[in-house]
Write a structure and sequence with these properties.
alpha/beta; Nucleotidyltransferase, domain 5; five-stranded mixed β-sheet; 6 helices; 38% helix
Length: 197
């Protein structure tokens, strides 16, 4: 288990930011922003991609209970298709930061690029969800929230298997698109079917 850093810059109130769903063919992109106390206890905290679902759900509850502030932001499929997935991810992060009830003095953003948020400096950290607690916590909240959204979309339209693939480009998902055509929540700016399909 990785030992995650409590902060990047000592003495600054920092919010970790991460997104979920950038590589999906369907559904919104979801971001979270989380401000943690420096000495918070979150046993097993790590990058959401490294954790089984049960651990993510357990940590989701703890993060919401123990964070100084947390918030979720989303960008819709229409916004993804309009501005592209990278900028839609930044838009979702901006919305999460704007919804925080405590204003941070610095943002720790997972990845290597970000559209600056007015009035709050940021640091981009490659694979930051495996390095900093606040980013790992944001990755868990974003992932679990988006999974819930995809489960709800699956209940409305079960033909694409979103309860299993969460909108990611699995072979079964692409086969369902080939059979049924795209749904209203597929990202039309993405390559839904490979040329050989």
């Amino acid at each position: 288990m990785a030992r995650l850093a409590a902060y990047h810059t000592k003495g600054l109130l920092e919010a970790g930011c991460d997104e979920a769903g950038r590589g999906c063919l369907a559904g919104p992109v979801v971001a979270a922003a989380v401000i943690l106390p420096e000495r918070v206890r979150l046993p097993g905290l790590d990058d959401s991609k490294k954790l089984p679902r049960e651990d993510r759900e357990r940590l989701r509850t703890l993060i919401k209970q123990r964070a100084l502030a947390w918030a979720i932001g989303t960008a819709s499929v229409a916004e993804i298709d309009e501005v592209n997935i990278l900028h839609a991810s930044f838009l979702a992060m901006h919305r999460a930061v704007a919804a925080l009830t405590v204003r941070p003095r610095q943002l720790l953003v997972d990845g290597n690029r970000f559209d600056p948020y007015h009035g709050i400096p940021h640091r981009c950290i490659i694979q930051g969800d495996g390095k900093y607690r606040s980013i790992a916590a944001a990755s868990i909240l974003a992932k679990t929230h988006r999974d819930d959204l995809m489960q709800a979309l699956h209940a409305e339209n079960p033909r694409y298997g979103w309860d299993v693939n969460m909108g990611y480009p699995t072979a079964a998902h692409r086969a369902a698109i080939a059979l049924h055509g795209p749904s209203a929540v597929h990202r039309m700016s993405f390559t839904l079917l490979r040329q050989a399909d």
